[in-house]
Automatic annotation (TrEMBL), chain A:
Organism: Zobellia amurskyensis
Record lineage: Bacteria, Pseudomonadati, Bacteroidota, Flavobacteriia, Flavobacteriales
Entry-linked Gene3D superfamilies: 3.30.70.20
Residues annotated as signal peptide: none
UniProtKB keywords: 4Fe-4S, Iron, Iron-sulfur, Metal-binding
MF (Gene Ontology): 4 iron, 4 sulfur cluster binding; metal ion binding
Domain 4Fe-4S ferredoxin-type per the UniProt entry, residue ranges: 254-283
Chain spans, region Disordered: 16-38
Domain of life according to the entry: Bacteria
Comp. bias (Low complexity): 21-36
Name of the protein this chain belongs to: 4Fe-4S dicluster domain-containing protein
TrEMBL record, chain B:
Membrane topology per record: Multi-pass membrane protein
Family: Belongs to the NrfD family.
InterPro entries cross-referenced by the UniProt entry: DsrP-like, NrfD-like
Keyword Cell cycle: no
Residues passing through the membrane, by range: 27-46, 66-85, 97-118, 147-166, 178-201, 221-242, 254-274, 300-320, 329-352, 372-394
Protein name per Swiss-Prot or TrEMBL: Polysulfide reductase
Source species, domain of life: Bacteria
Species: Zobellia amurskyensis
Alphabetized PANTHER family for the sequence: POLYSULPHIDE REDUCTASE NRFD (PTHR43044:SF2), PTHR43044
Subcellular location: Cell membrane
High-level lineage: Bacteria, Pseudomonadati, Bacteroidota, Flavobacteriia, Flavobacteriales
Principal localisation: membrane
Amino acid sequence: MSDNKKWFSLDLGLNNKKESSGSCGCGKSEGSCNSSPKEEELSADEFYEAAINASIGEERHRDGFEQVFDVKMDRRSAFKKLTASLLIGAGAVTTSCSVTTGSDTKEKAQIGWEEQFKGNYKLMTDEEKQGTINRLMRSYELRTDKKINMTAENAAEDVLFGYAFNISKCQGYMNCVSACVEENNQDRNSEMQYIRIHEMKDGEGFKFDKADDNYYHEVPAEGHFYMGTQCFHCDNPPCVEVCPVQATWKEEDGLVVIDYDWCVGCRYCMAACPYDGRRFNWSKPEVPENEVNKNQHYLGNRMRKKGVMEKCTFCVQRTRKGKNPACVEACPTGARIFGNLLDPNSTIRWVLENKKVFRLKEDLGTEPKFWYFMD
Amino acid sequence: MGAFKVFRSLVVDSLDTITKGSKKYHLWMGFLILVMLIGMYCYSIQLEEGLSATGMSDRVSWGLYISNFTFLVGVAAAAVMLVMPTYVLKDIDFKQAVLIGEGLAVAALIMCLAFVVADMGGPSVLWHMIPGIGVFNFPNSMLTWDVIVLNGYLFINISIPFYILFKHYQNKEAKKSVYVPGAIISVFWAVGIHLVTAFLYQGLQARPFWNNALLGPRFLASAFAAGPALIILVLAVIRSFTAFKIEDKTIKKIAMIVTVAAQINLIMLVSELFKEFYAPTHHSESAYYLFFGLHGKNALLPWIWTAIPLNVLATVILTFNKFRNNLKVLYFCCFMLFVAIWIEKGFGLIVPGFIPGPYGKIVEYLPTGVEIGVTIGIWAMGAFIFTILAKTAIGIELGELRYKDKKA
Ligand code: SF4
Ligand code: SF4
């Protein structure tokens, strides 16, 4: 199995055939990187396929209301049954019980039901994905009279995203933090932030416990250096393993994402993340209407609700369109580098091959796709 | 058809018993209902505002609910310490206690499930966890294992006593060949619910305070001390308020179990403390926080320094036969032990797991009024359920409740 891995894997010394994992697995194998990406991709696909089958097996084909309730069964009656049995007292039927008629209300109720009982996004077909984002866009329009643009773009082939952070360059301006908040429609009330910038004292090394990640003074402060953390999109993510409902998973391009509508809010993933990468909506998230970023992705910056988990997605709505994440774009110092790890000509590959890179808490075997380096 | 008729008559009869009783009994039930209503009101606030109504935050993301859940799994598993000797080793002494113990297990399990639901951010989408309809991340997620074992254990603990009582209700002997295999399964199952719940925490490499091989065994030891301790207290109450006869011998035997478990628990505690404090590493910071506070943050100190002396004191007193055989002293010790382990296995285990955070940040946790209200409400619900179960069971066992075939 480890042969099929696209990137690093924990070397326990059991796999002697494998070359020891240098900073880049491709650089050493006689330029095989250029000649065999196709083959590699294919095997990765197979691996993904096998992984899905191994982990959920049958359920994959049976999941979601459509699969569970036999096709012959009328969809509406299936909803009714489910609603009656599951929603009593759950307070989620609010709209559907409304007495007011009017086609808008009805449509809202219809969308509400379909959304409540849709399946897990991870297991949806492309049409189902399109269906749910259409409903979500329509629902937003019905509620606010404004249009949003949401996509369900899948991972592209031959892409594996990675990130590198230049500690020497970062000056602690936090432009990345505010750009991220705006881009990703994070809750303004609780001041949720995916990125934390840790201010550390020169000469003391990486003393995270003594660092200040919530400063309000002028930067760069004399005698300090800065270092950012966020979700590292681990290649072996413990947060994904523990989720009881598979509401969070690793996409083929390496992004670790969450289906906000499938998450039940148990916060097990939060306890499992060693990098403080996850944020929870303790109350209803609010973004002023004129500040809402309307270019959204289902797995990315679409509006969340209370009681669900969220986190950095490497700006999936931007990066799958070939753009850089908002933090990378916003950084005035160029400390942040993002790119495709499978593209030998990418900047990130250059950094990994030419700089002395390291990652945090490597001993945990989580294989973050987020490297640090210094000039 | 016949069985169904008997069942209906049983339900009617037991409804009759549980609505009748002494004044004290009515006061007790009325009080529990009041507390439950308060709890429900608090929960409605939480549903409305979201979990921000609790003291939890991104830094300490589990609190009072999960603490109580963890502790109650232990209480539930303890019933089995009585089941085994009674059903399997044919030790008659325990027979009286065992129905009570199993009733306690059922109540504790229902409380466990209630605490988990109270902790969820999205209770309305809990159906995502139902295998077949939702997606059940089995076997990867330990939480799914926990769902299976807890519900299985609940099923076993409802069906065995139900079978026995159902037979007794009809003046028949319960068949050994039916319930003994069930009892044996439940013994293993009880160990299972414990280990699985411990693994829930133990498997997280992100939290060194939990990621330690002793967690599972220590769960077992402390549960087998706290659970039977609670059973002793409950038996004492039942003895003085009902005609149900429980011999001193029975209580003393259970006290023996409590003592041994408490001693083992103490040994493991010493081993844990030694590892954390003899050669402290970065990973010992949580333990430092728990026992001594870190950087001036010391919210847990009063708790843990109540728990440890109580624990040690109770264990030492119980160790001496002379004290243990004095029932007054025994009850007092059981109470101390129960409180000590509730703190240690609840608060003292869950909260320090998050402090300091992954990057050493220390944010303290204090439950809010709403959270405490919901918690007390759930405990009241547990007591309510247990009282109903126990009253019916005692009624049947005393022969007050009997099936009367109208035709015969
Ligand atoms: S950093 Fe945390 S949240 Fe992100 S993938 Fe890794 S374990 Fe999961
Ligand atoms: S909080 Fe949501 S994403 Fe995280 S483990 Fe629970 S269900 Fe899964």
